[in-house]
Amino acid sequence: MNRVRLENWFNRIWYSDIRPPWWLLPFSWLYCGVVYARQLARRLGLLKVVYPGVATIVVGNLTVGGTGKTPFVIALSRLLSVDGLRVGIVTRGYGGDARDWPCEVTTDSDPLKYGDEAVLLAGSTGVPVYAGPDRLAAARALLAEHSIDVLISDDGLQHTRLGRDIEIVMIDPERSFGNGICLPAGPLREPLSRLEDIDATVALGMHPAAKFQFAAAPGEAINLATPARRLPLKDFAGKPCHAVTGIANPERFFRMLKEQGLQPDTRCFEDHHAFNAADIRFDDDSAVLMTAKDAVKCRKFANSNDWYVPLELHPDPAFKHWLLEILKRKTNLG
């Protein structure tokens, strides 16, 4: 069973009415036990927590898979920057094969070396971005080279060694928390009780458990070969086209295109797939559309038929007020 089939098998168990196999449940109980033990050890001071020395916001998931966290981190960085705050981002660099971590990542960095999400964050925000499995080490490396006011940790919720002032959990508005069971019988990285300790929950859409909702909509399609060339998605409606992606929830991207009137021929790969030219080539000259995360790995061999569709977020108006108030209350900012 290859990785894509294995992921599909787990997704059917996690996000449907199918009962998980009985033999997976003991592993979930063991997993939950380890999580609870770590949480208790942290509360008792047995696990060291180190604060980086600047206001720190951690954005993460309780579930495995895509929840819109990367677009949200981009929007959060822009929101804080517009308010005059200097922002830095640390991220895992998942999928990167760099030998030495942490690393500073720029828009021109190799996504196969430093991770597609890290390169996307750098190119979309213009703020310092450092990647590495050890978030604390990445934070220290960033602060050694850049003076910032706010540090955002992308997907660092379970990396508890990094001290944080604010925790934000992203919720998938469509798949929610699945069957509510911890890994591997369910999609939860931590039990749902963890939400009691979170400062805020955010969904890119409507969800009853989300404190804030961000409206999400596709932006204009941007040509990979000539980024200055942009077209409304409606221009692709009624024409043959292809949609290619390697993200955790490809159906969300395909559905978004169909809601705009497109009827693409679809091709999906595993999350963080290392694209090559053949992956996005077809036997015709029709447009090929992909996500922004896919685009950073395809731009080197892109041609004039290749486009990416950025996701534009429109924050809940109450979110910015809440964020600035909690930053003032929990840190020295303001």
Automatic annotation (TrEMBL):
Keywords: ATP-binding, Kinase, Lipid A biosynthesis, Lipid biosynthesis, Lipid metabolism, Membrane, Nucleotide-binding, Transferase, Transmembrane, Transmembrane helix
Transmembrane regions listed in the UniProt entry: 20-37, 49-68
Cited CDD domains: SIMIBI
EC class: transferase
BP terms from Gene Ontology: lipid A biosynthetic process; lipopolysaccharide core region biosynthetic process
Enzyme Commission number: 2.7.1.130
Pathway(s) it belongs to: Glycolipid biosynthesis; lipid IV(A) biosynthesis; lipid IV(A) from (3R)-3-hydroxytetradecanoyl-[acyl-carrier-protein] and UDP-N-acetyl-alpha-D-glucosamine: step 6/6
Gene Ontology CC terms: plasma membrane
MF terms in GO: ATP binding; lipid-A 4'-kinase activity
Keyword flag ATP-binding: yes
SUPFAM superfamilies: P-loop containing nucleoside triphosphate hydrolases
Matches recorded under NCBIfam families: lpxK (TIGR00682)
PANTHER family documented for this protein: TETRAACYLDISACCHARIDE 4'-KINASE, TETRAACYLDISACCHARIDE 4'-KINASE, MITOCHONDRIAL-RELATED
Protein name: tetraacyldisaccharide 4'-kinase
